[in-house]
């Protein structure tokens, strides 16, 4: 999979610009605040339909402008049936700034929700059918949270990877999330004496069916990650699953009514990063939990390990090698692990950023996009 061109209009600090990328490695070079990460954010937006750093989508719209437009031409190297040439796909996302208005009842200004339009070859798509047209794997400084922060971040990561390769998973996770919301409403009504347990039956069956599909898909990915390795590293990803079944729902029925919350199921899953080597070099049979006992360097290595496995997994499942996006990677990794990255970038289209000229000089036969000129 190759991104040929990227067009940005009113995207953060970029008013209007078009970028072309090498089929191999493209280095985006420039001082801090020149907008290097913005380019990667735009590509990620086209891949997932979402930003990896904007709390609200309108944050991506340049100040004073009404909309942002991001578009790209992507070439899929897996040729369509009866075609001798790769397929070209035009992707575009337009986000319109919310409109301010005054509510007569409230007597103060409110904000209407902005609109987002996603198109593939000029045809509007829902997010469910849009995702997967551009497959990309991203690694940046913020990814350390995958090891150190809450289980919800790790669940979202699993959902993102699996949704890229499996439309059925996308359907299951949407159905499951809707079912959780509806079931929790019924639990609240039961607690208030306004409903009976029989009204949970439909949602119980839906959650068990969809939840088991979600668990199986997550388990396959984690098993795949554990078949991969990094030189000199002994890493393991442990799946702490929350099984959902009739028996488990029955077991927690009283607690669920009291909390008005579904207490079991894949929305309670976690994954734990472990290393068999501790800081002192002392081995552990079960592995040291990196969120508690790992150094920042060890935690970065664990994230890099998973991201490289993600590249291979997506290729295995779809037949296409994703685009690799690396943000300021060399400041995050020690020298001995630079070689791992250098060996990896040539295996797919790679777009990376750096603020250091010495990092640019590491490369031969690469395209350079210099910002701030």
Question: What average pLDDT do the residues reach?
Answer: 87
Element-level helix/strand string = EEEHEEEEEEHEHHHHEHHEEHHEHHEHE
Count, helices = 13
Task: Output the CATH topology of the largest domain.
Answer: Rossmann fold
* Structural class label: alpha/beta
Compute the CA-based radius of gyration: 23 Å
Measured distance between first and last alpha carbons: 30 Å
Work out the count of structural domains.
2
- Kindly state the number of beta strands: 16
CATH superfamily of the largest domain: P-loop containing nucleotide triphosphate hydrolases
**Under the CATH scheme, which architecture of the largest domain would be assigned?**
3-Layer(aba) Sandwich
Name the beta content range.
25-35%
Counting copies of identical and different chains, the oligomeric state is single chain
Overall outline: globular
Can you tell me the residue ranges where pLDDT is under 50 for at least 5 consecutive residues?
101-111
Helix content: 25-40%
List keywords for this structure.
13 helices, Rossmann fold, 373 residues, single chain
Structure description:
This protein is α/β, with parallel strands linked by helices. The protein has helices spanning 36-48, 127-130, 145-148, 151-165, 167-191, 201-225, 246-251, 253-259, 290-293, 296-318, 329-332, 335-345, 357-360; strands at residues 2-11, 14-20, 25-29, 67-76, 87-96, 100-102, 109-111, 116-120, 123-125, 136-139, 235-240, 270-277, 283-289, 323-327, 350-354, 367-370. The strands form four sheets. Strands 2-1-4-5-8-9 form a six-stranded antiparallel sheet. α4 packs across α5, α5 crosses α6 (201-225) and α5 (167-191) crosses α8. The two termini are 30 Å apart. The relative contact order is 0.17. Mean pLDDT is 87; it is low at 101-111.
